[in-house]
Specification:
Blueprint (H helix, E strand, L loop, with lengths): L1 E5 L4 E2 L9 E2 L2 H6 L1 E10 L2 E10 L14 E5 L6 E7 L6 E8 L4 E8 L4 E7 L6 E9 L2 E9 L1
Antiparallel strand pairs: 1-4, 2-3, 4-5, 6-7, 7-10, 8-9, 8-11, 11-12
């Protein structure tokens, strides 16, 4: 069983699925943060993880020009995959974090970007098969992508 909750009054598109969309209230938008909790229960075991979500919004289409590009391939992967980033700032620091479907962090690395793009190959061949999430954090924001390790 999967259950998403928050400490605010916003709503989830479907709080019982892993890939859900959270819609914050105006109060949460004004505050700029809310705490989101994911609880998973299976076969009599349960675990949960809570994280503070930074809420940002744009009031114009030109703000999307500031976002960075993020691609991950091949997906699914048998082991080695590539994270590709573009539209970054020179000398920017990026952090990429890999989590299991249950939210356990299994990999973290911080990199300095010397140009406006960056690529990094990551070897997951020793990890068990399953669904994982890569989150990339940069000065321009955060992006998360799901991938499958076969």
């Amino acid at each position: 069983m999967i259950l998403w909750t928050s400490d605010g009054d916003g709503s989830f598109s479907d709080p019982s699925t892993l890939n859900t969309v959270y819609t914050p209230t105006q109060e949460e938008l004004n505050a700029g943060i809310t705490n989101i909790t994911l609880k998973i229960t299976t076969a009599g075991c349960s675990g949960s993880a809570t994280d503070q979500m930074k809420i940002t919004w744009t009031d114009g289409i030109n703000d999307t020009d500031k976002a960075f590009g993020f691609n991950l391939y091949p997906n699914p992967t048998n082991g080695v995959f590539t994270i590709s980033l573009d539209n970054l700032e020179s000398n920017e620091t990026v952090t990429y974090i890999i989590h299991t479907a249950t939210g356990r962090e299994v990999f973290r690395e911080i990199a300095e970007v010397n140009g406006n793009s960056y690529e990094r190959q990551i070897d997951m061949s020793k990890f068990i098969a399953g669904m994982y999430f890569v989150t990339v954090q940069s000065e321009k924001g955060n992006k998360t992508m799901k991938f499958i390790k076969q």
